[in-house]
C-alpha cells in the first residue's frame, strides 16, 4: 500500500495511506487536509490543489492541460510543482512526500 | 396521503415565487427531509447537500450539460459555453480563459481596475446616505469587466442596461416573450458596438478579452466566428458583471449586519477572507444543473439516466453537516471552501478576476468610507438563481 506524507506550511507532517487509482488530491480531501482547496473538484480548472513533490522525477509527466494551469498557481511554481488532482497514485510508490504550499488562493 | 409527483405534498407545492422571495428556509427543510428529490415545479431533481453537490459537480462523467436547455440556448445561442461539452466546450474555454487565469490577472488587475475603483470611490459623498450597489459596486464591476474585455469606452449606464436585460432573459424560466424580445434588441445593439472593434482586432490583436475571443486557440490565420464570439461575450457580460459587484454587495451587507465592517477597515488584508465568506453566505448564482449520463443513487433516491439535477450550491454552502450556523455571515469562519463557483469542467472561468475585482472595490471603499453603517432604508434582496442585494443603502459619516 503506498504511503503519502503531506508536509504542511507550518512543518507538521501528516502521513496517510494512499490507494492506487485515486488522485493525490482525492486522498488529501478525504483526510480533510488543510491547504488543499481543490475548488473545481479535480478537473485541472482551478489550480488550488497545488503541491510540491519531493520526488517529482518518480511521477508521471505533466500533461499540457496541467502545465497550463500550473502557470496560475497562487504560490510560486517550481520544477517540483504538481496539481495533486492530476497525479494518480500508483501501487509501486512505496513512500511519497508532498509539500503543501502557503497559499492556494 | 394523496399520490403526487414526488409522493411528498410540501415538495409538490413548492413554487418558483416562494423560491424567488427567499429560498434558504426551503433549502434547510430539503436538506433535513429530502436532500435529493424530484420537484415538479422545476421538472428536475434538487440536490441540496454539500458533499453530494461537490461530488456530483466534480464527476463530469456522471453529469453532463442538459441536452435540452431552451432558456440558455435562447439567450446565449446553441452550444454556448455553459451547456457545451467535450471538444466544443474546450474550444469555448480556450477563447475565454487566457486573460482570466491567475497568472494573467495578477499581471494587469492593479493597473486596470484600481484607477476605476478609486475614481468611482472619489465620487461617493463624504457624509450622507446612498445606495452602494447602484452608486459604486455595480459601476466598478461593470467598468472593470469592460476594461478587461477591451470595451472600456462604452458608458457604464449602457453596460448596466445590457447586463440587466440579458440577465432578465437568462433567468426567464417561465418563458415569457417580453424578456427575450428585449434581449434580442440589446444583442443587436451590442453587435453594432462590437463589430468595428472586432474588425480592428482581426489585424491588430491586443491583450484584451475580445482579442482573445477572436484569436486564442485558433490555427494561424484563422479567427473565431462572430456567432461564437457574441455568445461568449454575452455570457462574460452576465457572469462577469454579476459575480464581482454582487459578491462585494453581499459581503458588505454581511459585515454591516454583523458589525464587523470595522475589522476590514482596520485590516484590509482581511478583505479576501471577507469576500470568501460573502460568497458562501449568499451564492450570487444559486445553482447549476446537469443531466445524468447513467443511473445513480443519491441519498437513497434512485435517479434514472437522463435525469436533470439542480446542484444547489447556495444550499450546499449552508449545509449543517459542514457549516455551523451557516445562515449567518461570520468573517472569521473556518471550514471547507464554498461551492459558489461551481465545479468540474464548467468551474467558473472568471473566479480569479471576479475575486480580484471585488477585493479592489472593497479596498477603495474602506479607504474613503471608514465609518459606514446600514441606512434606515435598508436593503432589498430577492432571487434564487441570481441572488444578491438589489439595493444596499448605507450611511457614511465624515471620519
Automatic annotation (TrEMBL), chain A:
Gene3D superfamilies: 3.10.20.30. Its cofactor is [2Fe-2S] cluster. Keywords: 2Fe-2S, Iron, Iron-sulfur, Metal-binding. Residues 2-104 form the 2Fe-2S ferredoxin-type domain. PANTHER family: FERREDOXIN-2, MITOCHONDRIAL, FERREDOXIN/ADRENODOXIN. Belongs to the adrenodoxin/putidaredoxin family. This is 2Fe-2S iron-sulfur cluster-binding protein. It comes from Pseudonocardia yuanmonensis.
From TrEMBL, chain B:
It comes from the Bacteria. The keyword Iron applies. Keywords: Heme, Iron, Metal-binding, Monooxygenase, Oxidoreductase. InterPro entries: Cyt_P450, Cyt_P450_B, Cyt_P450_CS, Cyt_P450_sf. The keyword Oxidoreductase applies. Belongs to the cytochrome P450 family. PANTHER family: CYTOCHROME P450 YJIB-RELATED, P450, PUTATIVE (EUROFUNG)-RELATED. This is Cytochrome P450. The lineage of its organism: Bacteria, Bacillati, Actinomycetota, Actinomycetes, Pseudonocardiales.
Amino acid at each position: 500500500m503506498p504511503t503519502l506524507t503531506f508536509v504542511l506550511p507550518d512543518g507538521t507532517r501528516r502521513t496517510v495511506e494512499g490507494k492506487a487509482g485515486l488522485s493525490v488530491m482525492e486522498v488529501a480531501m478525504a483526510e480533510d487536509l488543510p491547504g488543499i482547496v481543490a475548488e473545481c473538484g479535480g478537473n485541472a480548472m482551478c489550480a488550488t490543489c497545488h503541491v510540491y513533490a519531493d520526488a517529482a522525477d518518480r511521477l508521471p509527466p505533466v500533461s499540457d492541460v496541467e502545465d497550463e494551469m500550473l502557470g496560475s498557481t497562487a504560490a510560486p511554481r517550481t520544477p517540483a510543482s504538481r496539481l495533486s488532482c492530476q497525479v494518480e497514485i500508483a501501487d509501486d510508490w512505496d513512500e511519497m512526500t508532498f509539500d503543501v504550499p502557503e497559499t492556494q488562493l | 396521503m394523496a399520490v403526487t409527483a414526488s409522493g411528498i405534498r410540501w415538495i409538490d407545492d413548492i413554487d418558483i415565487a416562494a423560491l424567488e422571495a427567499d429560498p434558504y428556509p426551503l433549502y434547510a427543510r430539503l436538506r433535513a427531509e429530502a436532500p435529493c428529490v424530484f420537484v415538479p415545479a422545476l421538472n428536475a431533481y434538487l440536490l441540496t447537500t454539500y458533499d453530494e453537490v461537490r461530488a456530483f459537480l466534480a464527476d463530469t462523467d456522471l453529469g453532463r450539460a442538459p441536452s435540452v436547455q431552451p432558456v440558455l440556448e435562447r439567450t446565449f445561442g446553441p452550444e454556448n459555453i455553459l451547456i457545451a461539452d467535450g471538444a466544443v466546450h474546450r474550444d469555448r474555454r480556450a477563447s475565454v480563459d487566457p486573460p482570466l487565469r491567475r497568472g494573467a490577472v495578477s499581471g494587469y488587475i492593479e493597473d486596470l481596475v484600481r484607477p476605476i475603483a478609486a475614481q468611482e470611490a472619489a465620487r461617493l459623498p463624504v457624509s450622507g446616505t446612498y445606495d452602494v450597489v447602484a452608486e459604486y459596486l455595480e459601476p466598478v464591476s461593470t467598468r472593470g469587466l469592460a476594461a478587461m474585455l477591451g470595451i472600456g469606452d462604452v458608458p457604464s449606464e449602457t453596460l448596466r442596461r445590457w447586463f440587466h436585460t440579458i440577465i432578465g432573459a437568462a433567468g426567464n424560466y417561465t418563458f415569457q416573450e417580453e424578456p427575450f424580445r428585449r434581449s434580442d434588441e440589446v444583442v443587436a445593439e451590442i453587435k453594432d458596438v462590437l463589430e468595428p472593434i472586432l474588425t480592428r482586432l482581426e489585424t491588430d490583436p491586443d491583450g484584451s478579452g475580445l482579442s482573445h475571443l477572436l484569436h486564442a486557440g485558433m490555427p494561424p490565420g484563422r479567427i473565431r466566428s462572430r456567432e461564437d464570439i457574441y455568445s461568449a461575450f454575452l455570457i462574460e457580460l452576465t457572469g462577469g458583471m454579476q459575480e464581482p459587484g454582487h459578491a462585494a454587495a453581499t459581503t458588505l451587507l454581511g459585515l454591516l449586519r454583523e458589525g464587523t465592517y470595522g475589522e476590514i477597515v482596520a485590516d484590509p488584508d482581511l478583505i479576501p477572507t471577507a469576500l470568501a465568506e460573502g460568497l458562501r453566505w449568499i451564492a450570487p448564482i444559486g445553482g447549476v444543473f446537469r443531466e445524468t449520463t447513467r443511473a445513480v443513487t443519491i441519498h437513497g433516491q434512485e435517479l434514472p439516466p437522463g435525469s436533470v439535477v439542480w446542484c444547489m450550491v447556495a444550499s450546499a454552502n449552508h449545509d449543517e453537516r459542514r457549516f455551523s450556523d451557516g445562515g449567518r455571515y461570520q468573517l472569521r469562519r473556518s471550514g471547507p471552501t464554498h461551492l459558489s463557483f461551481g465545479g468540474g469542467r464548467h468551474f467558473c472561468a472568471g473566479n480569479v478576476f471576479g475575486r480580484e475585482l471585488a477585493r479592489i472595490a472593497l479596498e477603495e471603499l474602506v479607504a474613503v468610507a471608514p465609518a459606514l453603517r446600514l441606512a434606515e432604508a435598508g436593503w432589498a434582496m430577492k432571487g434564487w438563481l441570481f441572488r444578491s442585494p438589489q439595493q444596499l443603502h448605507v450611511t457614511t459619516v465624515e471620519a
